[in-house]
Amino acid sequence: QAPHLLVDGRFKCSDPYIHCSLHNNLHWSMHTSTQAAHKLPDDWEMQCKDQVMCLSHYIKMFSVPPKLIINADQTGVCLIPAGNKSWAPTGAKQIATMAKEKCQFTLMVALSTMGDVLPFQSIHKGKMVSAL
């Protein structure tokens, strides 16, 4: 049976209370895992200009109609968020997080230069047969 404080659902712990309790009683503090940030190549502007010139050449050379010129992009859709922060003993040097454990799928969106929005495509990948 639940303690009387929990029966009617009014008992709540505030974030500051939990933070102080973890810090004062367990001597834990919030830590952030680290990883290198993705960096653009030094010549990214030139690569973009080269790509535009290449596309322009092929569109003109093969008379590609505007409705067949499609821009698409992909984004990860996170079903279960996995953060890069965790509670650990104060002073700990190595902090393991579940940041690499992802439950997500890739969503691909595309549209043509005519303004047509193509149907979204969801891309799922699993490592086990039961996940596919």
UniProtKB/TrEMBL annotation:
Highest taxon above the source species: Eukaryota
Protein name: DDE-1 domain-containing protein
Lineage summary: Eukaryota, Fungi, Dikarya, Basidiomycota, Agaricomycotina
